[in-house]
Amino acid sequence: MPRNVVFVAPFPAEVTMRFVRAAARAPDVRLLGVGHTPPSGADARLYDDFVRVTDPLSARDIIDATEVLRRRHGQPYRIIGILESIMVQLAQARAHFKVPGTPPEVAELFRDKAKMKAALRTAGLPVARSRLIRGEPDARGFADEVGFPMVLKPPAGMGGKSTYRVGSYEELLRAAKGMGASDANPVLAEEFLRGREFSFETISTRGAPRGESISHYLPSCLEAIENPWIQWTCMLPRDISGAEYDGARAMSRAAIKALGLDDGMTHMEWFQRPDESLVIGEIAQRPPGANISLMTGLANDINLYDAWISAVVDGEFHGPWQRKYAVGSAFLRGMGHGRVASVTGIHETWEAVGKWVVEANLPTVGAPRSESYEGDGYVVVRDPSTEVVKRLLKTIIETMRVSYTG
Ligand SMILES: Nc1ncnc2c1ncn2[C@@H]1O[C@H](COP(=O)(O)OP(=O)(O)OP(=O)(O)O)[C@@H](O)[C@H]1O
Ligand SMILES: [Mg+2]
Asked: Atom 24, ligand 1: which residue's CA is nearest?
């Protein structure tokens, strides 16, 4: 009997489809899709059945569509998806159909940055001091406690949207007001963390990490958000076995345990302060974006998409991973707004780094400028040497130039 795996994929974006393709080739799986728009072209036949919904972010729509699939095919075996914005809704659907997998309380801890920080703090893990700001008294109290700068963000944000550094009490009040801070809609304020920013990924089963990976953000996401011309890079060093990463490894393991994830992938962001102390930024219970899923596979010479499916469908890990490469992504963008007008330096870049390029997606002339620090395109490079990958990334961002119509 095939197992009914319901994959909620709101739109057939390429990043999502890589995981859907992995689910489609998994053994003994009947792949059932739920989403707003089904895939077309070569991906059209991946699902054995697909139910369209009006609002793929609504738990109600996800549950109703899954009920349609249940009537047609029988009880779901797993209900899965990769997007941060639907993690809690997926868990609610699992609870509704009594399907194994991350429960709503756990999904909520990973989704809500205030609850997450409270749980990590209770477990004795280092996180930024934080406070939910509803109005002036909260703002005043927290400012007295941590001072400035401070970071403001929505408690369940993603993609760095509406994440601001504020430098004074006046700026804090203005930003909190602009974000609509109120009793019903509190804004999360955090002590400003200084230092270098990294990520830590795991494939975990039965609550423990089985495969691990680290990436380095250059510069930090916030610097990329604040300086829209910066071409952000993310680099996975080849060797992560050293003692310099022991602290991060321990934090990741303890965070997974504290929040209660069983089977799946985690993506933790962490900082190394100038005094070398470590602190957790946040942790997600899903495959990471910003090419980090792709790069984790490339660094270990494995298929990360299949590894995630094994974890969330079978509760299995096929390892251990052996890190064979350093990998990096350069995200392409430039100063300006409007639409992409031109990309220069492509030829020179290829002359210099072409032989290391594993994947590239160049900005499309005429496309609207992306709002994200992931820019309008990217180049992924790989080499056994971390130093070589660093140099390649530097060459790419110094050579490629994106310009816009405005
Ligand atoms: N307390 C803080 N101190 C310093 N920088 C911070 C702090 N909180 C967030 N940042 C910066 O802002 C970025 C975005 O913040 P955060 O990760 O909380 O938002 P997000 O919406 O989940 O973003 P993403 O989806 O890109 O991870 C972080 O990667 C980090 O660079
Ligand atoms: Mg983040």
From this structure: 159
Half-sphere exposure of 254 (CA within 13 A, CB side): 17
Query: Residue 281 C-alpha to ligand 1 middle, in angstroms?
Result: 7
List C-alpha distances in Å: 321 to 209, 210, 216, 296: 12, 9, 19, 10
Query: What span, in angstroms and rounded, lies between the C-alpha atoms of 152 and 175?
Result: 8
CB under 5 Å of ion ligand 2: residues: 269
Question: For 125-130, what is the mean pLDDT?
Answer: 98
What average pLDDT does range 117-123 have in this prediction?
98
Assess whether pLDDT exceeds 90 at residue 120: yes
The phi, psi pair for 270, rounded to 5°, reads -145, 155
Q: Give me the domains of the chain, ranges plus CATH numbers.
A: 3-101 (3.40.50.20), 129-191 (3.30.1490.20), 196-404 (3.30.470.20)
Q: How far apart are CA 209 and CA 205, in angstroms?
A: 7
- What does the alpha-carbon distance between residue 41 and residue 212 come to, in Å, rounded to a whole number? 34
Cβ of 190 closer than 6 Å to ligand 1, yes or no, is yes
Q: Residue 257, Cβ neighbours under 10 Å: how many?
A: 15
- Separation of CA 159 and ligand 2 centre (Å): 7
Return the pLDDT at 56: 97
Average pLDDT over residues 351-360: 98
- CA 326/CA 17 separation, integer angstroms: 25
Does any ligand 1 atom lie closer than 6 A to the CB of residue 290?
no
* pLDDT tens digits, 227-240: 999 999 999 999 99
**pLDDT band of 328, cuts 50, 70, 90:** very high
Locate 190 and state its tokens.
């955090």
As a whole number of angstroms, the distance between CA 369 and CA 403 comes to 10
Segment 203-207 shows an average pLDDT of 98
CA 352 to ligand 2 center in whole angstroms = 32
Q: How far away, in angstroms, is 270 Cα from ligand 1 center?
A: 10
159 lines ligand 1 (CB under 6 A): yes
Q: How far is the CA of 3 from the centre of ligand 2 (A)?
A: 34
Mutate to test the pocket of ligand 1, among 130, 151, 164, 166 (most ligand atoms within 8 A of CB): 151
